Task: inverse folding
């Protein structure tokens, strides 16, 4: 066993604190990874607070993980000791269902769905296990830690053109927005709207722009209008009724990255006939859709969940080729609880990334 440590929450009402545990050593087709950086995702906060009613405690978040391979198990051919690699939202799936067979592990239809990098299988409202759950499939510990052990085919290669710390948020924020942009076939010249301009939204804007789209971001934060201009895209306040009225029936695709329940109806009105608005930021029910608007113009409102392993590698490579990286702020693990508050208050520009070397400062605590 590998003696490990990280930061975890023991209850929905507790803060993240130092937590000691053990991981099994790399077995056949598995790699052992020393974690270097881990992004902070808004879903980490939802999970720690049990806002999706499926959290297993102790909960150790972290699914935007970049590290260095330190050991490989028997049969490993894709990665070698010393490689800089990434681990995103998943570390396994059933591998047998139609979705997995088609390469869409993120839509695994097996009895336990895909195995999340932390908190175990991604199934809704599952009953928390009792007793010692530290080595069971219904609880996994994520990247707010010093080590990970992952099956090699769920480990991504970090291209040389990406800094490891910048690559971390691409493993979730990047692929979560890349997947719908690709699936709904955004083309050069398309007019694309991005609702929400936080961690996911700013990556969506960068990716869509690099794909050749004409990008408009809708934000509730006046200060972010200048940020949009800095990225070379148009920024509009989402409650600017005059601006919205002038944009009716003009967009080819709209992606909502707002991480909580919200009203998409004003933005459905901005779609052209036969076009789609896709929500990726919220897993709870949205406000009811005005079906008069969708039916009268054959518009669609859809959803999308993270991305497949192949899509994740694809977006990493795309970002390396196009010089795209998220805007990040490096923090120490000791500042994680303060960082959570700032994320909830919208005070981060745009993504926190934990330097996991800071974990050594209190590893003996």
Result:
């Amino acid at each position: 066993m590998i003696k490990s440590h990280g930061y975890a929450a023991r209850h929905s009402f507790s803060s993240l604190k130092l937590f000691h545990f053990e991981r099994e050593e790399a077995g056949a087709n598995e790699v052992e990874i020393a974690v270097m950086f881990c992004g902070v995702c808004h879903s980490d906060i939802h999970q720690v607070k049990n806002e999706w009613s499926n959290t297993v405690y102790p909960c150790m978040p972290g699914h935007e993980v970049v590290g260095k391979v330190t050991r490989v198990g028997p049969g490993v051919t894709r990665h070698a000791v010393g490689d800089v690699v990434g681990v995103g939202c998943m570390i396994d799936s059933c591998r047998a269902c139609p979705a997995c067979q088609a390469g869409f592990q993120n839509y695994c239809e097996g009895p336990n769905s895909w195995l999340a990098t932390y908190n175990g299988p991604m199934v809704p409202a599952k009953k928390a296990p009792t007793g010692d759950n530290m080595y069971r499939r219904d609880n996994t510990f994520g990247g707010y830690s010093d080590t990970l052990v992952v099956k090699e085919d769920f480990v991504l290669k970090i291209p040389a053109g990406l800094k490891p710390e910048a690559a971390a948020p691409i493993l979730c924020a990047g692929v979560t927005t890349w997947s719908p942009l690709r699936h709904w076939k955004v083309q050069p010249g398309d007019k694309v709207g991005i609702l929400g301009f936080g961690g996911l939204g700013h990556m969506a804007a960068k990716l869509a722009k690099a794909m050749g789209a004409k990008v408009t971001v809708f934000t509730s934060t006046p200060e972010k209008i200048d940020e949009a201009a800095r990225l070379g895209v148009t920024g509009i306040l989402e409650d600017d009724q005059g601006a919205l009225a002038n944009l009716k029936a003009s967009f080819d695709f709209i992606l909502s990255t707002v991480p909580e329940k919200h009203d998409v109806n004003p933005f459905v009105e901005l779609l052209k006939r036969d076009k789609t608005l896709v929500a990726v930021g919220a897993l709870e029910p949205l406000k009811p859709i005005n079906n008069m608007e969708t039916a009268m113009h054959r518009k669609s409102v859809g959803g999308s969940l993270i991305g497949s392993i192949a899509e994740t590698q694809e977006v990493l490579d795309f970002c390396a080729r196009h010089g795209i990286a998220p805007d990040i702020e490096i923090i120490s693990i000791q500042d994680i609880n303060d960082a959570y508050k700032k994320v909830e208050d919208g005070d981060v520009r745009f993504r926190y990334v934990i330097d996991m070397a800071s974990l050594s400062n209190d590893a003996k605590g």
